[in-house]
Design goal:
Length: about 400
């Protein structure tokens, strides 16, 4: 393998890198070594040829936009709207910590360049404590949270307890609770994410971590146990009526804390991968879309995050509106992992992608040992037409498996 010296060699190396990444856990040791060498060569070429560091944060952003062909609307998706993007581009607004994090993670701009020697501006939309350490109750769907049991010390008297909303939030976020709290961070850009209530996302995240911490008897997490054989077996559980429940139990047996926690209003949240207080991987699922195809795709998407993206440096990955197409590298990798694990690429190309009839889809599902909803959901996703195969995707067949009804 030779050093990269030309744009053509750089493009070829990136193509090889993408091809290797797409194989996930199936890589041989020789291919893993090749991937590592390729990444090093690409990084060196880009560092020498396209230096990102700039005298000011604005120049760093403009340089990256010009280099990658990004427009101001792309920046708007990262910084919280068109008006903020316009103010940043004209120098009227500085960058908040959350903006710096997103520009670093999703556009690859070094944090040093984005800081520019200045303290980041506070993010006006972020959940922030007041002077007394409390959170502003007006920003949270407290009644819904109360009904869901978010406040253990309070129950069965909403009319009385709603008179002390600050007290409810103090109960939710007690000092010294031992639960790691990171600012809720949605990786998906645009769409519902732009309207998501980040305070509600923060509360949901906290609730999931609290519930995960209560699971005391889980074995130690062993990443190696989530190998290709186990993942193929896990996908095969989709053919069983109680497959979703069995899959969650199987992951718990591998040391992953599994939590089913319905989404809160204005969050549009489908799932999350988190690190618990003991650095144990946590997968939270909302079952917002009560469909089998959505359950299996979301579950494997979050497993992809656990395997490849979750770390102490990146301990929170919230997935909003998961059916929406993404451009972020991390989310694209998790999508590809889920799609290729549920339906291997060879099988998809040779047996599945051109199917139209329900009988054909059911027959292919039987051959591949997956539920027809897995194939139907993939076909809908690839066609970007969610009116297709409505009888095959398993509407209203997930929550009942977990004993969830409208009443509870």
């Amino acid at each position: 393998m030779k050093p990269i010296k030309t744009p053509e060699q750089h493009a070829e190396a990136l193509s090889c890198l993408d091809s290797l990444f797409s194989r996930g856990e199936s890589l041989t040791q020789e291919q893993r070594d090749e991937l590592e060498i390729l990444a090093t060569l690409i990084e060196k070429y880009e560092r020498d040829t396209y230096p990102v560091a700039s005298p000011t944060p604005l120049e760093a952003i403009k340089f990256r936009m010009e280099q990658m062909g990004y427009k101001q609307k792309d920046l708007a998706g990262l910084v919280g709207g068109a008006s903020r993007a316009s103010e940043i581009m004209t120098g009227k607004r500085g960058l908040t910590t959350e903006m710096i994090r997103r520009l670093r993670d999703e556009w690859g701009i070094p944090a040093d360049s984005l800081l520019g020697g200045a303290t980041p501006d506070p993010d006006p939309s972020a959940p922030t404590p007041g002077a007394d350490g409390a959170y502003d109750p007006d920003n949270y769907p407290l009644k819904q949270m109360y009904g869901r049991g978010y406040f253990p010390k309070y129950s069965n008297d909403w009319k009385g307890h709603r008179k002390d909303p600050a007290g409810l939030l103090r109960d939710l976020y007690p000092h010294g609770s031992g639960v790691r709290r990171e600012l809720a961070h949605c990786r998906q850009g645009g769409g519902e994410n732009a309207k998501a209530n980040r305070h509600a996302l923060d509360a949901w995240q906290h609730r999931v971590l609290v519930r995960a911490a209560e699971k005391k008897n889980l074995p130690a997490y062993d990443r190696a146990a989530l190998d290709g054989n186990f993942l193929r077996w896990l996908a095969g559980l989709s053919v069983l009526t109680d497959g979703p429940r069995l899959a969650c139990e199987a992951l718990a047996e591998k040391g992953i804390a599994m939590v089913i926690e319905p989404h809160l209003e204005q969050t549009y949240l489908d799932g999350a991968a988190l690190l618990g207080s003991d650095d144990r991987p946590v997968i939270g699922l909302t079952l917002r879309h009560n469909r089998l195809d959505n359950f299996w795709f979301t579950l494997f998407h979050e497993i992809g995050h656990v395997l490849f993206h979750l770390s102490p440096e990146n301990p929170v990955i919230l997935d909003v509106d998961i059916d929406r197409r993404k451009t972020d590298v991390v989310e694209t990798e998790a999508d590809r992992f889920a799609l290729d694990t549920l339906i291997p690429p060879g099988a998809w190309d040779e047996q599945v992608r051109h199917l139209h009839l329900a009988a054909e889809i059911r027959a292919a599902a039987k051959r591949l040992c997956v539920h027809p909803a897995v194939i139907a959901g993939r076909l809908r996703r690839e066609a970007n037409d969610y009116r297709m195969h409505r009888t095959l995707v398993g509407y209203n067949e997930v929550k009942t498996v977990f004993g969830i009804t409208e009443e509870n």
